[in-house]
Amino acid sequence: MSRELENRTAWLPQQKAYPMTVSSGPVPEPKGTEVLVRVRAVAINPCDWAVQILGLVVKAERYPYINGVDVAGEIVSVGPENTRFNIGDRVTAMATMFFSKGPSYGAFQEYMLGVDPLVAKIPDHVSFKEAAVLPLGLSTAIHQLFTKDGLALDYPRVGTPVNSKGKVVIVWGGSSSVGANAIQTAKAAGYTVAATASKKNFGLMEEIGVDYIFDYNSDNVVEEIVATLKNREPLAGIFDAIILESTIRACADIASKLEGNKHVGTVLAPGMPLPTGTPEGVKLSLNELSFIESEVGRAIWVDWLSDALADGSMKCKPNPELVGRGLEKIQDAVDLMGKGVSAKKLVVEL
Ligand SMILES: NC(=O)c1ccc[n+]([C@@H]2O[C@H](COP(=O)([O-])OP(=O)(O)OC[C@H]3O[C@@H](n4cnc5c(N)ncnc54)[C@H](OP(=O)(O)O)[C@@H]3O)[C@@H](O)[C@H]2O)c1
C-alpha cells in the first residue's frame, strides 16, 4: 500500500542550510517491528534549532538530513514482526534519525518510520497536537531519572499511590519541556516532587502535582529549598533540566545540604563539560540518550505511557502552541524556538 503514496519532506541538504527544502520522495516500507506513521503533528525542540541554525550535533557527513524528533500521527502500515500496533492506531513517536538512523526516521516529513520501543498509542481524548509535545522531553527526563547511571528511581506504574515512596525528587526547571515530563514521571512513580519555575508558571506546577514550588528568580531560592525540605523526606535525587552552569551549581549546593541521594542528574550530553569545584560528596552526571533497546525506554514507552495518558495521570505538558499547518510552516516554528519559549511547545500540524 505504501508504495502508492507520495512522501513530502522538509529537509536540510547540508549543515546550516536555510530555509528547509520541501520536496517529494518515496514512502518507506517498515521492516521488522517498525511502523509507518502518517505524521499529523510535529513539535519543536531546542536541538532542532541548534542542528539547523548553529550546525551543531549532526556531523556534515550525515547530510542530507531530516530534522526533528517529536511526532504524533496514525499508523498506516506495520512491519512483519510488529505485534504492538494495528493500522489506524493513533500514536506519539520519537524520531530516531538524530540517533544515527537514516532519513526515513526523521520527524519533519509526512511519513516516518517509527522504531520500537519509541512509539505509544494515544487515547481518543488526546489530540495529535497535544501528543506531539511528549517524545523528546519525556525520553530525556526518563533516561536521567530511571537508568542505573542516572538517579535510578523506581519506574512509574499506573495506580501507584501518590507520594508513597517517602522520598523527594527535586526538579530544577519544572516549566521546561524536559522538566514537566520529569515531574510527571517521578510523581507517577510515587515520589514527592519539589520544582523550580518562574512565578507565572506556578499554575502549571500545581496542575502536574508538584508538592513544593519555588521561584528560581528569588535571590535566596537555594536557601528556601533547603529550609523547606530539611528534616523532611530524604532526597531521592535532583534533576537539573536547564543545564546552565548556575543551575547545576545551585542543584549541587542543595544536594550538599540535604540528606539522602546526593546525585544531581543533568541533561548535558556526553562530551559536554560538567562544572568543577562542586561540593564534595555530590555526584554529577551527564545524560546519554540511548533508548533503542533500552530497558527504561520499554518500561515507560511500552509498559506505562499509553495507560497513563488514558487514565489522565500523564498529561501532555507543556501545552502546545500551534504555529501553523503544513511542512512549510516548520521553518517558522524552528525560528521561533530560537527566541526561546516559556512553558509551551511549538507545534505544526501536517
Ligand atoms: N542531552 C540531551 O539529550 C537533551 C535532550 C533534550 C533537551 N536537552 C536540553 O535540555 C534543556 C531543556 O530543554 P527543553 O526542551 O525542556 O527546554 P524548554 O522547554 O525550551 O525550556 C524553556 C523553559 O526553561 C525554563 N528556564 C530557563 N532558565 C531557567 C532557570 N535558570 N531556572 C529554571 N528554569 C529555567 C523557563 O522557565 P520559566 O518560563 O518558568 O522562566 C522555560 O519554561 C535544553 O538545554 C536542551 O538543549 C538535552
UniProtKB/TrEMBL annotation:
UniProt keyword Oxidoreductase present: yes
Pfam families named in the record: ADH_N, ADH_zinc_N
SMART domains, A to Z: PKS_ER
Ranges of residues in domain Enoyl reductase (ER): 16-348
InterPro entries xrefs: ADH-like_C, ADH-like_N, ER, GroES-like_sf, NAD(P)-bd_dom_sf, Trans-enoyl_RdTase-like
Keywords, alphabetical: Oxidoreductase
PANTHER family membership: HYPOTHETICAL OXIDOREDUCTASE (EUROFUNG), ZINC-TYPE ALCOHOL DEHYDROGENASE-LIKE PROTEIN C2E1P3.01
Protein name per the record: Enoyl reductase (ER) domain-containing protein
Species per Swiss-Prot/TrEMBL record: Neoarthrinium moseri
